[in-house]
Amino acid sequence: xxxxxxxxxxPSDPSDGPRHVAIIMDGNGRWAKARGMPRTAGHRRGxxxxxxxxxxxxxxxxxxxxxxxxxxxxxxxxxxxxxxxMGLLRQYLRAELDTLAKEGARLRVxxxxxxxxxxxxxxxxxxxxRTRANARIHVSIALNYxxxxxxxxxxxxxxxAVALGKLAPAAIDEQTVERHLLTRDLPEPDLLIRTGxxxxxxxxLLWQSAYTExxxxxxxxxDFSKADLEYAIAEFRRRExxxxxxxx
Length: 248
Ligand code: IPE
Ligand code: IPE
Ligand code: MG
Description:
Blueprint (H helix, E strand, L loop, with lengths): L19 E5 L3 H6 L5 H21 L4 E8 L7 H24 L2 E6 L7 H13 L6 E9 L1 H17 L10 H6 L11 E4 L18 E4 L9 H13 L10
Parallel strand pairs: 1-2, 1-5, 2-4, 3-4, 5-6
Bound molecules: 3-methylbut-3-enyl trihydrogen diphosphate (2 copies) and magnesium ion.
């Protein structure tokens, strides 16, 4: 992606998608470091970007927005930082639920809830329940989420069904696996954006992104703007998705 000052390509038709945009929100720590601030200051600013991005995605006609908030590997960070992130999550859920509910957003959390504090799990359940009937935009936050862990838990549940004689191994196909993933209620992501300049997946939606278009933005997450999102969407619309077939 060019620098932020580059002209935004002409707007294109929302019916061209992307329906589902997934984002690896990376670069909070570097944003803070560049300003001589603690990493936590970057996370705090990152929450502002989450708010702005949810709004911008809705305005741009995105139906599903999935944000990587905390990975199964992020527990390796210093306890202070992990605690701060969990505190921010509590604040976000407390402060944003009304707005999300009013704006017609349906909130979901994907990830292993067993690893999260009980009060956070309660808040998640309340938020999901309260926004269940909304459909203007589906906002999913991946928390304690790992792509490999998701595939492993699906495999365990399928193995259990086989052991109980409820499922024949030969009956397992891609749809069966998909139905057991934590993302089973979401379509596959059309566009995956990673901010922060690194070009890797870091264990995000491994199965689900088999044919997802990838865009790496140099913007650090606290600096990511609606213009950057529009730019990524315009770039997505220029791509030809072939799914292994011959160009049409
Ligand atoms: C992303 O920013 C936020 C989370 C992973 C929770 P980082 O904290 O990874 O910031 P950098 O990559 O160190 O700059
Ligand atoms: C990916 O970012 C996870 C989230 C954005 C939540 P990381 O900062 O954890 O990824 P690595 O360590 O650079 O691969
Ligand atoms: Mg990072």
